[in-house]
Write a structure and sequence with these properties.
This protein is mostly helical and 126 residues long. The chain has a single domain, classed as Helix Hairpins (Orthogonal Bundle), CATH 1.10.287.370. 81% of the residues lie in helices and 8% in strands. The protein contains two helices and two strands, in the order αββα. A two-stranded antiparallel sheet has the order 1-2. Helix 1 runs antiparallel to helix 2. The longest helix has 58 residues. The radius of gyration is 27 Å and the shape is rod-shaped. It starts with a helix and ends with a helix. The mean pLDDT is 92.
């Protein structure tokens, strides 16, 4: 395989990693927003008394929900979101490492291509 073809192939792989990294970062941002939202709900629940009613929106309807059940649901959601954040952060780190490897590969191929050109010119112009 020629160096130019290899360069194009590795460049394509690098661009795909950039897209994957971008998607993972967007997912991380969405999870951050969900985490903040659920933390606010948890803070609101902390201020409730036993006499306060809690309602859950199901479609266009508000349905009364047990306060303890609602608090448990929010805690479970928070645990899930934190787990997802850790997973996505691992993906981001993995994509960044793979991207660094591909970038170095591109630099190496580019250097080899630059060294190859003067040799080709010397062969054609004695």
């Amino acid at each position: 395989m020629s160096l130019a073809i290899k360069f194009q192939q590795v460049s394509g792989e690098y661009q795909k990693l950039q897209v994957d990294l971008s998607k993972a970062i967007e997912a991380r941002q969405r999870l951050d927003a969900q985490l903040s939202e659920n933390e606010l709900v948890k803070q609101e629940f902390a201020q409730l008394t036993a006499q306060n009613d809690v309602y859950k929106q199901i479609g266009p309807v508000l349905v009364k929900q047990d306060q303890a059940e609602a608090k448990t649901n929010v805690e479970t959601r928070l645990e899930f979101i934190r787990g997802e954040i850790k997973r996505v952060e691992g993906q981001i780190k993995d994509f960044e490492q793979k991207q660094d490897i591909k970038k170095q590969e591109l630099v190496n191929i580019q250097t080899a291509l630059q060294q190859e050109r003067p040799q080709e010119l010397a062969k054609t112009h004695p």
